[in-house]
Automatic annotation (TrEMBL):
Transcription regulation is among the record's keywords: yes
Coiled coil: none
Protein name (database record): STAT6 protein
Gene source species: Alectura lathami
UniProt cross-references to InterPro entries, sorted A to Z: p53-like_TF_DNA-bd_sf, SH2, SH2_dom_sf, STAT, STAT_linker
Origin superkingdom: Eukaryota
Pfam family, one: STAT_linker
Gene Ontology molecular function: any one: DNA-binding transcription factor activity
Length: 234
């Protein structure tokens, strides 16, 4: 007999996501001297934050981890609670069901399926943007509206889509002639979209985008991510 790291046998690629969740939970939360296959059903939220952060940094291969405000957004998402404070969440525990069994309210996927989609997108298309801290990413649509509503016309930021797995969207301010402001969210870009045209070039294309929140001219923020266009190319 030999001890091994946990393995999961699957029969189809569509089971890959759930298999990864099982392995991650086992690796992160099983005790060394446990009865075989026994893993805690609930774990402290703080432990979960550490696990998600380590997973994110390892998968994306970046030194820039998750921040406190990212954990706050993730807690609101997994617990479906928008009234609790950051301190309230620190004393809570999260269950396996909340992590990868229960469908998020109004969505067709679990918390882990959504988070894994973000991981995959960032790893494939957004690593340099994330490492340069150009993407806030983990932030709610409601909070984006609060942040941007008082900003000048053309101020924008990047967040991971709530409604789609593996999508990044741009939220930007449009100010009317009467001074009223409106925050618009551009349809999310998937990994496939960004393989056709990079995020930097898409941002350069969009004339309505001027300053990255809080106040960095977009060419200054994203200039190093623009591709040199071929002359005469449409």
């Amino acid at each position: 007999q030999v001890l091994s790291l946990p393995i999961v046998v699957i029969v189809h690629g569509n089971q890959d996501n759930n298999a990864k969740a099982t392995v991650l939970w086992d690796n992160a939360f099983s005790e060394i001297d446990r009865v075989p296959f026994v893993v805690a059903e609930r774990v402290p939220w703080e432990k979960m934050c550490d696990t998600l952060n380590l997973k994110f940094m390892a998968e994306v291969q970046t030194t820039k981890g998750l921040l406190k405000e990212h954990y706050f957004f993730l807690a609101q998402k997994i617990f479906n609670d928008h009234s609790a404070t950051l301190k309230d969440f620190q004393s809570r525990s999260v269950s396996w069901a909340q992590f990868n069994k229960e469908i998020l309210p109004g969505r067709g996927f679990t918390f882990w399926q959504w988070f894994d989609g973000v991981l995959d997108l960032t790893k494939r298309c957004l690593k340099s943007y994330w490492s340069d801290r150009l993407i806030i990413g983990f932030i709610s649509k409601q909070y984006v509206c609060k942040l941007l509503s008082t900003e000048p016309d053309g101020t924008f930021l990047l967040r991971f889509s709530d409604s789609e797995i593996g999508g990044v969207t741009i939220a930007h301010v449009i100010r009317g002639k009467d001074g009223s402001s409106q925050v618009e969210n551009i349809q999310p870009f998937s990994a496939k979209d960004l393989s056709i045209r990079s995020l930097g070039d898409r941002i350069r294309d969009l004339g309505q985008l001027r300053n990255l929140y809080p106040n960095i001219p977009k060419d200054q923020a994203f200039g190093s991510h623009y591709n040199k266009e071929q002359t005469g190319k449409d």
